[in-house]
Amino acid sequence: MKNKEFKKILIIGHRNIGDACCDLVVVKPLRRKFKNAEIVFLTSPVSKDIVEGYKGLDRVIVFDKYGADKGIWGRLRLVFLLRRERFDLVVALSSTLMHRYIGARYQWSVRKYLGCLPQDKKMHIADIYIEFLRSFGVEAQKEHWDFDVEAEDNFCDEFLRKAGVNEGERIAGILPYSGWLLKDWPIERWNDLADLLKSEYSLKVIAFGKVADDINGREKLTHFSPSIISAVNKTTLKQALSLIKRCNLFIGVDSSLLHLASCMGVETVGLFGATSKEYIYPYFHYSNVITPAQKRYCMPCYPGLNPCPCMKDKITKSPCMEDISVESVMQLVRQKKIVK
């Protein structure tokens, strides 16, 4: 099996952006091993934007769980579509059983390889994937991701020009919002941090992310300091990645853009409280993860604690994230001389 020359390979990836980003670590090794194979990636509509055009992939197939592929008939439609593709090899990274039904002779399953859930290994998921590939004779190692964002250069130039960022000025990106309130850091601390980054390092600060287009979401945007340039809700995913590539520093909560920044080699600082830094952390910047000075009994609530007491009590501000001070972030930036 290790020396088999596959002609058509399907990678079954995850739905959400952060996990799909980690999935892409397998693409380069598979491309080097199977130079002439067609490599296809299965993911969701929301993650298609970062996967499509990724160097080493030939095509992307979308699994629209809440649209065309919804329900039993939608799943059957997708399975029949995949069977018609006649894949030689399926690499199942997500915990799905779909790979069993699409007719591929060879099936490599991470779940079967581990014999447990990935988070039980206490390793970064990308490192698990590297070991997984090696077990099948595919040489793999840590290396930066190759996202296809060159087409967004003009957008970046125009955005920065309108924001008053001149060529040669240094930029810090921040990610204040995640998809889960308990992972977020108070907005007033982001404002204080932005002021310090500007005064000590002359950094222009750009905020990234998405918030809901409703009263609560719009209210969040009104609390930004005037010194922060907002790209929130103003970019596509690839436009955001293109802007992040131009950052000298990126600081964020545990959400997809933080991990994407690290994977692209941007100097990254992560703020973690509600989630574990042992399983998913900024891949190239583990030592740049800041956690609360005092560990609470309930940390982390994911993965691990069920039910999370904050969710049970309907708390909307994370006590553990509030334990992270602005000074602890600045201390790390100063001590490690992150900003050159």
List the helices and strands and how they pair.
Blueprint: E1 8-12, H1 17-23, H2 27-33, E2 38-43, H3 48-51, E3 59-62, H4 71-85, E4 89-92, E5 106-109, H5 110-114, H6 125-135, H7 153-162, E6 171-175, H8 187-201, E7 204-207, H9 215-221, E8 228-230, H10 237-245, E9 249-253, H11 256-263, E10 268-271, E11 289-290, H12 309-312, H13 319-322, H14 326-335
Parallel strand pairs: 1-2, 1-4, 2-3, 4-5, 6-7, 6-9, 7-8, 9-10, 10-11
Concise synopsis of the structure shown:
The chain has helices spanning 17-23, 27-33, 48-51, 71-85, 110-114, 125-135, 153-162, 187-201, 215-221, 237-245, 256-263, 309-312, 319-322, 326-335; strands spanning 8-12, 38-43, 59-62, 89-92, 106-109, 171-175, 204-207, 228-230, 249-253, 268-271, 289-290. It is of the alpha/beta class.
Written description of the protein model:
It is a single chain. This protein is an alpha/beta fold and 340 residues long. It has two domains: 8-135, Rossmann fold (3-Layer(aba) Sandwich); 151-335, 3-Layer(aba) Sandwich (Rossmann fold), CATH 3.40.50.2000. It contains 14 helices and eleven strands. The strands form two sheets. Strands 8-7-6-9-10-11 form a six-stranded parallel β-sheet, sandwiched between helices. Strands 3-2-1-4-5 form a five-stranded parallel β-sheet. Helix 3 links the parallel strand 2 and strand 3 (59-62). Helix 1 (17-23) packs parallel to helix 11 (256-263) and helix 8 (187-201) packs parallel to helix 14 (326-335). 39% of the residues are buried.
